[in-house]
What we know:
Elements (H helix, E strand, L loop, with lengths): L1 H29 L3 E2 L14 E6 L4 E6 L12 H11 L7 E3 L6 H4 L17 E3 H11 L2 H11 L4 H15 L22 H12 L4 H5 L3 E2 L6 H4 L7 E2 L16 E9 L3 E10 L2 E10 L11 H16 E7 L6 E6 L6 E6 L3 E6 L8 E6 L2 E3 L7 E9 L2 E10 L7 H11 L4 H31 L37 H18 L1
Parallel strand pairs: 12-16
Antiparallel strand pairs: 1-18, 2-3, 2-10, 4-5, 6-7, 8-9, 9-10, 11-14, 12-13, 13-18, 15-17, 17-18
Helix pairs in contact: 2-4, 2-5, 2-6, 2-7, 4-5, 5-6
Amino acid sequence: MRVYNHKIRGIAIRLCAATLTIVLSAILIASSFSANAYTFSADISLYSSAAILYNVETEQVVYEKNADTAQMPGHLAQIMTAIIVLENCDDLDGTTITANHDLYAELYSYDESDDVRYADIDNGDVLTVREYLYALMLTSSSEAALILADYFGDSSGQAGFVTMMNDKAQELGCTATTFQNPTGLYDTHQTSTARDLLTITNYALSLDDFEEIATTQTFTPTTKNSENHGDGSDWIWTHSNTMMDSTSDYYYEGAEGIKTGNLNNTGRSIITKATKDGTTYIVVLLNAPFNDEDGDLQYYHLEDAATLLDWAFSKMTYVILLEDTEEIAEVKVLNSDGNSYVLVHPESNCILLWCSDVDSSAIQKVIQLESEVQAPVTAGQVLGSMELKFSGETIATIPLIAIGSVDRSWSNFNLYALENFPNSPWFRYGIVAGCILTGLYIALCIYAAYRAKRSVIPEDPIHLIPHTTDFQDAPQRRNWKRDDTVFYHGPDRSEKEQEERKTKQTSDHFR
Length: 511
């Protein structure tokens, strides 16, 4: 009974811890502050050449080692092979492919035969695309990789499929990844990094069916081929990640498959995930040595994975670094009706994933506030921000908001506006606008005068010479009265004769 009660108590404690973790994760996701990437230096030693530890809930890398150093990914490249197939197959169960042993020719001529993984897919076997993916992800089957690449590589077969793999890596933002084959077998030009492989894995986990396939421990194909496999009862594929196997020396509670990959020329690699008390981590480890100093065979990649996960689950916890009830500072309020200042506090709690070995008092708080603001101020109005810095890097930025409201005093505001109008930008804008308009008016006047001067037509000078008239000899006119008789008469005869005589004389002269 005591043992039973102890188990019940342990389960209850784990459930409470998981619930608390989920609640804190939800609060963290819903919070308004922005968190940046930051890592911790763990007091651990790893055999792997490169490593990265990623918290799924916070989407945060908490530990890394040579994460951007180019490495050969080995069979981990098959994760991208699975991505291309999943994105180009509409029906995983309804699409079948017949295995063709002619595709295996390159496997038989491969120098390092121990690198090649087989799932006993024989010539003529008919399997669904889903079944091929299980063979690929659980056993690192080179046959499955070649068959899928040939089928989904369009007319160019494997070469076209590799092009699709590289295009997808570039689309995902992988800056140091190049694929040369879908199998992950040794090629000096096939390289990636721990960070890029984390990006690829996270994307794969976002696709339908990938996680279900990649975290399954064992799988038996439902499509039988009696000629090659009898009744198929012995045709079972087991995940190569023995951290899932409760009978293994490397069993790790909460661990889930994903992918392993080994190459004789580089080492052992693994990508796995593990969940404990509602917190999930993804581990990427590249190229741990096969043997120890004495030449004995070792599985250092599994040891490194357990070491990192133990550290994360024991040392990483959610910490409230800043509470939203904390009064941070005060801001001066101009032209207020009442209080001449307003207090500010964080817009929300700042909850971050933190290492218990690191004193949180080492975090530097940098406050950026308005020196003064104009009334009115409303409660919740953002008046500044606070940066939390660790080791010189900004790890979070939290908005600072007004605790209460402050009304405006219109009398104070009008007096302030009058006093400061000459210094206001609108005053300067008015002067500039006035100068521009005045200049335009003057230019318009000058242009109008110029056009008017050009439009005047000068008169013939001969018409400007006045005729001399003797006004003394001119007959005096009498004012006409309405009762005067009006007669019309032509010119005097003597005057007419004189004109005719002058005309005749002129004509005779030109003759």
